[in-house]
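Contributing new records

If you add data, match the layout below exactly. Sequence lines come first and carry their own label; structure lines follow with theirs. Keep one chain per record. Anything else will be rejected by the validation script.
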Amino acid sequence: MTSAAQPPIVFGARYSVYTRIARLALEEKGLAYDLEDVDIFAPGGPPEGYLARQPFGRIPAFEHDGVRLYESGAISRYVDEAFTGPALQPAEARPRARMNQLISVLDSYAYRTLVWDVFVERVRAPLQGRQPDETRIATALPRARTCLAVLDQAIGDGSWLVGPHITLADLHAYPMIALFRLAEEGADLMSDYAALEAWRARMTARPSVQATRSPIE
């Protein structure tokens, strides 16, 4: 384990799902860190020099004690493994595999469906002065239901997505679910999944979640 005497730096935006995932890991480990604002949607794109940290121009990026990383999955695993604090990954192979499977599901299927296809079209589009793409929303809802069903089944009768303790899977899922539920369709679908809705309430009450609230919430 390494020391956090020099605070880690997260380069990203408070509105970003993936920046929040990295910040949640730091908060759950009880680490002080600095957040340096990077708005990739600003006119002209990312600030000068940012591509040296993240060559694809996405957020977040991360730096600590000479270690530079990008991709939230890599950052959150590094944070868990490099610093002291509560473990955020199961020690045993089977639950760790389930955790990694859920993270992959969230990245591959849930993020675009829940956030871009539903939340952005229903909630952000009117704020941007455009009409929601109703076809895009309607097309996304069956896959959204599949994503929610997978998460609900993972929780089962327990409290968290993988076993009796919070893991990186929970931290990966929450920012997506939080935005999705702001859409009318999201709130309606969530009401069909009691275990997932109870999980969301437990997550919402955590200090790490309160400390990293998205401005749009």
